[in-house]
Amino acid sequence: MHFNPSLYVVLSLLASLGSVSAVGVVGQAPGFAADTTGGGNSSPVYPKDIKELTAYLTDNSPRVIVLNKEYNYIGSEGKVSEKGCRPDSNKCPGNGGQDAINGANWCSNSKYPLSISVSYDKAGIAGIPVKSNKSLIGIGSSGIIRGKGLRIANGAKNVIIQNIHITELNPQYIWGGDAITLVNTDLIWIDHVKTSLIGRQHIVTGYEPSNRVTISNSEIDGRTSWSATCDGHHYWAILFYGTSDKVTMLGNYIHNTSGRSPKVGGTGSGTLLHAVNNYWENNSGHAFDISENAKVLAEGNAFQNVKTTLLSGREALFSVPDTGSAEACRSALGRKCELNAFGSSGAFVGTATGFLGTMKDGVSPMAASKVVASVLANAGVGKI
Q1: What is the rounded distance in angstroms from the CA atom of residue 43 to the CA atom of residue 357?
Q2: What's this model's pTM, rounded to 2 decimal places?
Q3: InterPro entries recorded for this chain (predicted)?
Q4: Count of domains observed in the chain
Q5: What is the pLDDT of residue 359?
Protein backbone atom coordinates (compact mmCIF):
# COMPACT_ATOMS: atom_id res chain seq x y z
CA MET A 1 0.00 0.00 0.00
CA HIS A 2 1.37 3.42 -1.02
CA PHE A 3 2.04 5.75 1.95
CA ASN A 4 0.51 9.20 1.51
CA PRO A 5 2.19 11.66 3.92
CA SER A 6 -0.40 14.40 3.25
CA LEU A 7 -3.23 12.07 4.19
CA TYR A 8 -1.34 11.04 7.33
CA VAL A 9 -1.05 14.69 8.41
CA VAL A 10 -4.77 15.27 7.88
CA LEU A 11 -5.73 12.13 9.80
CA SER A 12 -3.39 13.03 12.65
CA LEU A 13 -4.88 16.52 12.86
CA LEU A 14 -8.41 15.13 12.99
CA ALA A 15 -7.38 12.69 15.70
CA SER A 16 -5.96 15.48 17.83
CA LEU A 17 -8.96 17.78 17.36
CA GLY A 18 -11.69 15.20 17.16
CA SER A 19 -13.52 14.60 13.89
CA VAL A 20 -15.79 17.55 13.09
CA SER A 21 -18.72 15.21 12.59
CA ALA A 22 -18.07 13.49 15.91
CA VAL A 23 -17.59 16.55 18.11
CA GLY A 24 -20.52 17.54 20.24
CA VAL A 25 -22.08 17.52 23.68
CA VAL A 26 -21.78 14.20 25.49
CA GLY A 27 -24.95 12.93 27.11
CA GLN A 28 -28.07 14.79 28.17
CA ALA A 29 -28.64 17.06 31.13
CA PRO A 30 -30.01 15.33 34.22
CA GLY A 31 -32.21 17.09 36.73
CA PHE A 32 -34.17 20.29 36.37
CA ALA A 33 -32.37 21.40 33.18
CA ALA A 34 -33.10 18.14 31.34
CA ASP A 35 -34.60 19.92 28.32
CA THR A 36 -31.43 21.89 27.56
CA THR A 37 -30.16 21.39 24.00
CA GLY A 38 -27.62 24.23 23.65
CA GLY A 39 -26.42 24.68 20.10
CA GLY A 40 -28.11 21.45 19.01
CA ASN A 41 -26.81 20.02 15.75
CA SER A 42 -25.03 23.17 14.62
CA SER A 43 -21.73 22.54 12.84
CA PRO A 44 -18.86 22.79 15.34
CA VAL A 45 -16.67 25.89 15.21
CA TYR A 46 -13.12 26.13 16.57
CA PRO A 47 -12.29 29.69 17.64
CA LYS A 48 -8.78 30.66 16.62
CA ASP A 49 -8.30 33.25 19.38
CA ILE A 50 -10.09 35.11 22.19
CA LYS A 51 -11.64 37.58 19.78
CA GLU A 52 -13.30 34.82 17.79
CA LEU A 53 -14.35 32.93 20.93
CA THR A 54 -16.06 36.05 22.26
CA ALA A 55 -17.74 36.64 18.91
CA TYR A 56 -19.15 33.10 18.76
CA LEU A 57 -20.46 33.28 22.32
CA THR A 58 -22.08 36.68 21.91
CA ASP A 59 -23.69 36.43 18.46
CA ASN A 60 -27.33 35.46 17.91
CA SER A 61 -26.69 32.18 16.06
CA PRO A 62 -26.99 28.71 17.62
CA ARG A 63 -23.44 27.47 18.09
CA VAL A 64 -21.43 24.40 19.06
CA ILE A 65 -18.15 26.02 20.10
CA VAL A 66 -15.22 23.67 20.58
CA LEU A 67 -12.18 24.57 22.67
CA ASN A 68 -9.06 22.55 21.91
CA LYS A 69 -6.53 24.91 23.51
CA GLU A 70 -6.18 27.67 26.08
CA TYR A 71 -7.81 31.07 25.53
CA ASN A 72 -5.97 33.60 27.67
CA TYR A 73 -7.79 36.90 28.28
CA ILE A 74 -5.31 38.22 30.83
CA GLY A 75 -4.04 41.62 29.66
CA SER A 76 -6.53 41.79 26.77
CA GLU A 77 -8.48 44.67 28.33
CA GLY A 78 -5.65 46.30 30.23
CA LYS A 79 -4.78 46.69 33.88
CA VAL A 80 -6.42 48.92 36.45
CA SER A 81 -4.69 50.58 39.41
CA GLU A 82 -6.92 52.33 41.91
CA LYS A 83 -7.94 52.52 45.55
CA GLY A 84 -9.45 49.46 47.22
CA CYS A 85 -9.94 48.35 50.79
CA ARG A 86 -8.74 45.84 53.34
CA PRO A 87 -11.58 43.90 55.01
CA ASP A 88 -11.43 42.69 58.59
CA SER A 89 -10.86 39.16 57.31
CA ASN A 90 -7.45 40.04 55.90
CA LYS A 91 -5.30 39.67 58.95
CA CYS A 92 -3.22 37.02 57.19
CA PRO A 93 0.55 37.06 57.56
CA GLY A 94 2.48 38.12 54.50
CA ASN A 95 0.33 38.30 51.37
CA GLY A 96 -1.92 35.35 52.16
CA GLY A 97 -5.25 37.17 52.38
CA GLN A 98 -7.68 38.86 50.01
CA ASP A 99 -7.94 42.61 49.77
CA ALA A 100 -10.94 44.02 47.91
CA ILE A 101 -11.67 45.87 44.72
CA ASN A 102 -14.48 48.36 45.21
CA GLY A 103 -17.01 46.16 43.43
CA ALA A 104 -20.64 47.26 43.93
CA ASN A 105 -19.20 50.08 46.09
CA TRP A 106 -18.40 47.45 48.72
CA CYS A 107 -15.45 49.46 49.99
CA SER A 108 -17.11 52.86 50.04
CA ASN A 109 -18.24 52.90 53.64
CA SER A 110 -16.87 53.70 57.06
CA LYS A 111 -16.13 50.07 57.88
CA TYR A 112 -13.95 49.40 54.83
CA PRO A 113 -12.65 52.77 53.58
CA LEU A 114 -10.76 53.16 50.34
CA SER A 115 -7.36 53.04 51.96
CA ILE A 116 -5.06 50.77 49.95
CA SER A 117 -3.85 50.50 46.37
CA VAL A 118 -5.04 47.60 44.24
CA SER A 119 -3.92 46.59 40.76
CA TYR A 120 -5.94 44.04 38.81
CA ASP A 121 -6.67 42.69 35.36
CA LYS A 122 -9.76 44.34 33.87
CA ALA A 123 -10.82 41.33 31.77
CA GLY A 124 -11.58 39.26 34.86
CA ILE A 125 -14.14 41.65 36.31
CA ALA A 126 -16.97 41.07 33.80
CA GLY A 127 -17.79 37.74 32.17
CA ILE A 128 -18.35 37.17 28.47
CA PRO A 129 -22.09 37.84 27.85
CA VAL A 130 -23.18 34.47 26.45
CA LYS A 131 -26.27 34.47 24.22
CA SER A 132 -28.95 31.78 23.85
CA ASN A 133 -28.60 28.38 22.17
CA LYS A 134 -24.89 27.80 22.70
CA SER A 135 -22.88 24.68 23.49
CA LEU A 136 -19.37 25.44 24.74
CA ILE A 137 -17.37 22.23 24.97
CA GLY A 138 -13.74 21.27 25.53
CA ILE A 139 -11.68 18.50 23.97
CA GLY A 140 -9.92 16.29 26.50
CA SER A 141 -8.47 18.55 29.17
CA SER A 142 -7.29 21.23 26.75
CA GLY A 143 -10.29 23.59 26.81
CA ILE A 144 -9.21 26.39 29.16
CA ILE A 145 -10.44 29.96 29.55
CA ARG A 146 -7.93 31.95 31.57
CA GLY A 147 -8.63 35.37 33.01
CA LYS A 148 -12.31 35.76 32.15
CA GLY A 149 -15.58 34.15 33.19
CA LEU A 150 -18.95 33.58 31.53
CA ARG A 151 -22.11 35.61 32.17
CA ILE A 152 -25.46 34.25 30.99
CA ALA A 153 -28.06 36.96 31.57
CA ASN A 154 -30.74 39.28 30.18
CA GLY A 155 -33.05 36.51 29.00
CA ALA A 156 -30.40 34.25 27.47
CA LYS A 157 -31.36 30.60 27.72
CA ASN A 158 -30.63 27.07 26.55
CA VAL A 159 -26.87 27.01 27.14
CA ILE A 160 -24.55 24.04 27.75
CA ILE A 161 -21.07 24.48 29.21
CA GLN A 162 -19.22 21.18 29.22
CA ASN A 163 -15.67 20.01 29.90
CA ILE A 164 -13.89 23.35 30.19
CA HIS A 165 -11.68 24.91 32.87
CA ILE A 166 -12.15 28.54 33.92
CA THR A 167 -9.27 29.91 35.96
CA GLU A 168 -7.25 32.89 37.22
CA LEU A 169 -9.78 35.69 37.68
CA ASN A 170 -7.84 38.11 39.90
CA PRO A 171 -7.73 35.52 42.71
CA GLN A 172 -5.95 37.90 45.09
CA TYR A 173 -8.99 40.21 45.28
CA ILE A 174 -12.56 40.02 46.55
CA TRP A 175 -14.72 41.21 43.62
CA GLY A 176 -11.97 40.06 41.27
CA GLY A 177 -14.47 38.23 39.07
CA ASP A 178 -17.00 35.38 38.97
CA ALA A 179 -16.38 32.25 36.91
CA ILE A 180 -19.99 31.55 35.88
CA THR A 181 -22.85 34.00 36.49
CA LEU A 182 -26.53 33.33 35.79
CA VAL A 183 -29.11 36.15 35.96
CA ASN A 184 -32.52 36.12 34.28
CA THR A 185 -32.08 32.97 32.23
CA ASP A 186 -33.42 29.43 31.83
CA LEU A 187 -32.25 25.93 30.89
CA ILE A 188 -28.56 26.04 31.78
CA TRP A 189 -26.46 22.86 32.02
CA ILE A 190 -22.97 23.15 33.53
CA ASP A 191 -21.23 19.78 33.23
CA HIS A 192 -17.69 18.50 33.77
CA VAL A 193 -16.51 22.07 34.34
CA LYS A 194 -13.63 23.01 36.62
CA THR A 195 -13.22 26.41 38.25
CA SER A 196 -10.10 27.47 40.12
CA LEU A 197 -8.30 30.61 41.34
CA ILE A 198 -11.38 32.81 41.25
CA GLY A 199 -11.56 36.19 42.98
CA ARG A 200 -15.21 36.03 44.00
CA GLN A 201 -17.85 33.37 43.25
CA HIS A 202 -17.12 30.21 41.31
CA ILE A 203 -20.81 29.88 40.38
CA VAL A 204 -23.54 32.42 41.16
CA THR A 205 -27.22 32.74 40.33
CA GLY A 206 -28.28 36.35 40.79
CA TYR A 207 -31.38 38.07 42.11
CA GLU A 208 -33.54 37.62 39.01
CA PRO A 209 -34.88 34.19 37.95
CA SER A 210 -32.32 31.72 36.67
CA ASN A 211 -35.13 29.14 36.45
CA ARG A 212 -33.99 25.60 35.53
CA VAL A 213 -30.31 24.87 36.15
CA THR A 214 -28.27 21.67 36.41
CA ILE A 215 -24.68 21.60 37.66
CA SER A 216 -23.24 18.11 37.27
CA ASN A 217 -19.89 16.32 37.46
CA SER A 218 -18.05 19.60 38.03
CA GLU A 219 -15.14 20.57 40.27
CA ILE A 220 -15.05 23.63 42.47
CA ASP A 221 -11.37 23.84 43.39
CA GLY A 222 -10.93 26.23 46.31
CA ARG A 223 -7.16 25.97 46.67
CA THR A 224 -5.62 29.44 46.66
CA SER A 225 -2.71 31.52 47.86
CA TRP A 226 -5.10 34.41 48.70
CA SER A 227 -7.59 33.17 51.25
CA ALA A 228 -10.24 35.25 53.02
CA THR A 229 -9.84 32.78 55.89
CA CYS A 230 -6.02 32.80 55.86
CA ASP A 231 -5.76 29.04 55.35
CA GLY A 232 -5.39 28.51 51.60
CA HIS A 233 -9.13 27.85 51.21
CA HIS A 234 -11.46 30.00 49.12
CA TYR A 235 -14.52 31.39 50.89
CA TRP A 236 -16.73 32.63 48.01
CA ALA A 237 -17.61 29.35 46.27
CA ILE A 238 -21.27 28.97 45.23
CA LEU A 239 -24.13 31.43 45.67
CA PHE A 240 -27.72 30.52 44.72
CA TYR A 241 -29.73 33.69 45.26
CA GLY A 242 -32.26 33.91 42.46
CA THR A 243 -36.05 34.00 42.26
CA SER A 244 -38.12 30.87 41.58
CA ASP A 245 -34.98 28.94 40.61
CA LYS A 246 -34.87 25.16 40.39
CA VAL A 247 -31.32 23.89 40.69
CA THR A 248 -29.99 20.32 40.56
CA MET A 249 -26.45 19.76 41.89
CA LEU A 250 -25.38 16.23 40.98
CA GLY A 251 -22.05 14.45 41.27
CA ASN A 252 -19.89 17.51 41.93
CA TYR A 253 -16.59 17.76 43.80
CA ILE A 254 -16.37 20.82 46.07
CA HIS A 255 -13.07 20.94 47.92
CA ASN A 256 -10.70 23.17 49.85
CA THR A 257 -13.31 25.86 50.45
CA SER A 258 -14.18 27.64 53.69
CA GLY A 259 -17.70 28.97 53.11
CA ARG A 260 -20.63 29.46 50.71
CA SER A 261 -20.45 25.93 49.37
CA PRO A 262 -23.28 26.75 48.70
CA LYS A 263 -25.09 29.71 50.20
CA VAL A 264 -28.76 29.25 49.24
CA GLY A 265 -31.56 31.80 49.44
CA GLY A 266 -33.07 34.33 47.11
CA THR A 267 -36.00 36.66 46.71
CA GLY A 268 -39.68 35.85 46.18
CA SER A 269 -40.00 32.08 46.20
CA GLY A 270 -36.21 31.82 46.28
CA THR A 271 -34.17 28.78 45.28
CA LEU A 272 -35.30 25.18 45.22
CA LEU A 273 -32.12 23.07 45.43
CA HIS A 274 -31.71 19.32 45.02
CA ALA A 275 -28.15 18.52 46.13
CA VAL A 276 -27.51 14.86 45.39
CA ASN A 277 -24.44 12.59 45.25
CA ASN A 278 -21.93 15.44 45.65
CA TYR A 279 -18.64 15.18 47.53
CA TRP A 280 -17.48 17.93 49.90
CA GLU A 281 -13.89 17.58 51.10
CA ASN A 282 -11.58 19.72 53.23
CA ASN A 283 -13.85 22.62 54.06
CA SER A 284 -12.36 24.58 56.94
CA GLY A 285 -15.49 26.68 57.48
CA HIS A 286 -19.05 25.89 56.37
CA ALA A 287 -20.61 24.10 53.43
CA PHE A 288 -24.35 24.89 53.41
CA ASP A 289 -25.64 28.28 54.51
CA ILE A 290 -29.41 28.36 53.91
CA SER A 291 -31.24 31.65 54.27
CA GLU A 292 -34.59 33.18 53.45
CA ASN A 293 -36.92 31.64 50.87
CA ALA A 294 -34.78 28.57 50.13
CA LYS A 295 -35.85 24.93 50.11
CA VAL A 296 -33.15 22.26 50.03
CA LEU A 297 -33.18 18.48 49.69
CA ALA A 298 -29.68 17.12 50.31
CA GLU A 299 -29.37 13.36 49.86
CA GLY A 300 -26.76 10.76 49.06
CA ASN A 301 -23.89 13.21 49.52
CA ALA A 302 -20.51 12.59 51.14
CA PHE A 303 -18.77 15.00 53.52
CA GLN A 304 -15.14 14.50 54.51
CA ASN A 305 -13.29 16.92 56.80
CA VAL A 306 -16.03 19.54 56.62
CA LYS A 307 -15.91 21.56 59.82
CA THR A 308 -19.48 22.93 59.64
CA THR A 309 -21.76 21.16 57.20
CA LEU A 310 -24.68 23.51 57.93
CA LEU A 311 -24.19 27.06 59.16
CA SER A 312 -27.87 28.00 59.31
CA GLY A 313 -31.29 27.23 57.86
CA ARG A 314 -32.18 23.78 59.11
CA GLU A 315 -35.86 24.78 58.97
CA ALA A 316 -35.55 24.92 55.14
CA LEU A 317 -33.57 21.69 54.76
CA PHE A 318 -34.39 18.01 54.50
CA SER A 319 -31.10 16.17 55.00
CA VAL A 320 -32.43 12.62 55.47
CA PRO A 321 -30.96 12.35 58.96
CA ASP A 322 -31.86 8.69 59.59
CA THR A 323 -33.20 5.54 57.97
CA GLY A 324 -36.75 6.21 59.08
CA SER A 325 -36.83 9.64 57.51
CA ALA A 326 -35.61 8.23 54.19
CA GLU A 327 -39.13 6.88 53.67
CA ALA A 328 -40.55 10.41 53.81
CA CYS A 329 -39.63 10.82 50.15
CA ARG A 330 -41.65 7.86 48.94
CA SER A 331 -45.04 9.54 48.85
CA ALA A 332 -43.60 12.75 47.38
CA LEU A 333 -41.01 11.35 44.95
CA GLY A 334 -42.03 7.72 44.49
CA ARG A 335 -38.81 6.46 46.08
CA LYS A 336 -36.95 6.62 49.35
CA CYS A 337 -34.30 9.26 49.87
CA GLU A 338 -30.64 8.35 50.34
CA LEU A 339 -28.83 9.09 53.57
CA ASN A 340 -25.74 11.29 53.52
CA ALA A 341 -22.32 10.03 54.63
CA PHE A 342 -19.83 11.77 56.92
CA GLY A 343 -16.18 11.48 57.88
CA SER A 344 -14.70 13.89 60.42
CA SER A 345 -17.47 16.37 59.67
CA GLY A 346 -20.02 18.37 61.61
CA ALA A 347 -23.69 17.56 62.12
CA PHE A 348 -26.08 18.00 59.21
CA VAL A 349 -29.67 17.88 60.40
CA GLY A 350 -32.76 19.26 58.70
CA THR A 351 -36.18 17.64 58.90
CA ALA A 352 -38.39 19.93 56.79
CA THR A 353 -40.45 17.81 54.39
CA GLY A 354 -43.32 20.01 53.23
CA PHE A 355 -41.62 20.92 49.94
CA LEU A 356 -40.46 17.44 48.85
CA GLY A 357 -43.15 17.19 46.19
CA THR A 358 -41.49 20.06 44.32
CA MET A 359 -38.19 18.15 44.02
CA LYS A 360 -39.23 15.92 41.12
CA ASP A 361 -36.24 16.42 38.84
CA GLY A 362 -36.00 12.82 37.64
CA VAL A 363 -32.70 12.06 39.35
CA SER A 364 -32.30 8.59 40.88
CA PRO A 365 -29.49 8.88 43.43
CA MET A 366 -26.89 6.26 44.26
CA ALA A 367 -26.05 5.33 47.83
CA ALA A 368 -23.67 7.73 49.57
CA SER A 369 -21.17 4.89 50.12
CA LYS A 370 -20.44 4.94 46.38
CA VAL A 371 -20.17 8.69 45.96
CA VAL A 372 -16.51 9.40 46.76
CA ALA A 373 -15.16 6.91 44.24
CA SER A 374 -17.69 7.97 41.61
CA VAL A 375 -17.08 11.70 41.99
CA LEU A 376 -13.29 11.44 42.03
CA ALA A 377 -13.43 9.33 38.87
CA ASN A 378 -15.87 11.53 36.98
CA ALA A 379 -15.96 15.15 38.18
CA GLY A 380 -14.01 17.86 36.39
CA VAL A 381 -12.37 18.29 32.99
CA GLY A 382 -10.91 15.49 30.90
CA LYS A 383 -13.17 12.85 32.43
CA ILE A 384 -15.84 12.60 29.77
Answers
A1: 40
A2: 0.94
A3: Pec_lyase, Pectin_lyas_fold, Pectin_lyase_fold/virulence, PEL
A4: 1
A5: 95
